Amino acid sequence: MKYMYLFFALVIMQTNAQTSIDTIQKEIDQTVWKPFQTAFETLDAEALNNTYAANVLRVTPEKIDTKNVFKKGNIKRFMGMKEKGNAISLDFWFDDRKTNETTSYEVGFYRIGFTLDGKTEYSYGQFHIVLQKIDGQWKITQDWDTTAIAGETITASHFKKKEGIRF
């Protein structure tokens, strides 16, 4: 009987811990991912840059950026897209999320649609993001993405494995 109470106590603790993690991930979705997606789709570089921490490790297949050069690039790129009349869409889904009270490591796939003159072209990739709670707010502190895995280009077939998230 004693072990039965211990078992139920452990089950309740595990359920409460998972509920807490789910709550934290929903908070991240609303305070980081929803604004991130909206900023991309409205070409609002300032709002996009606000989802990032003051100091970010940004890694792409081309380089490592530890000086936030990518933030200036966001402003320039989005301004150019607006001037040309481009539209952009961003869809993504999570393959894995590991979260605690102060840090979240999130892996997933994305699809970016670039539309100009009614024609849309898509780009696909995988991301690995680290978020940290800084001064009470979730911010992206590490951003790594790639368009290939093990030398294989990521395509629509990779992305179609799950449905994109809309917030």
Q: Describe it for me?
A:
The protein is an alpha+beta fold. The chain has a single domain (2-159), classed as Nuclear Transport Factor 2, Chain: A. The chain is built from four helices and eight strands; from the N terminus they run H-H-E-E-H-E-E-E-E-E-E-H. A six-stranded mixed β-sheet has the order 2-1-6-5-4-3. Strands 7-8 form a two-stranded antiparallel ribbon. A hairpin with a 2-residue loop joins strand 5 (119-134) and strand 6 (137-146).
Features:
two-stranded antiparallel sheet, about 170 residues, single chain, globular, Nuclear Transport Factor 2, Chain: A, 6-stranded mixed β-sheet, alpha+beta, about 40% helix, 4 helices
Count helical runs: 4
Major sheet strand order? 2-1-6-5-4-3
- Unreliable segments (pLDDT under 50, ≥5 consecutive)? 8-14
Helicity, as a percent range: 25-40%
CATH architecture, please?
Roll
Q: What is the number of strand segments?
A: 8
Structural class, by secondary structure, is alpha+beta
How would you summarize this macromolecular structure in one to three sentences?
By secondary structure, the chain is an alpha+beta fold. It is 39% helix and 40% strand. It is globular and about 45 Å long.
Write the layout of secondary structure elements.
Blueprint: H1 2-41, H2 45-49, E1 52-59, E2 64-65, H3 69-84, E3 87-99, E4 103-116, E5 119-134, E6 137-146, E7 148-149, E8 152-153, H4 156-159
Parallel strand pairs: 1-6
Antiparallel strand pairs: 1-2, 3-4, 4-5, 5-6, 7-8
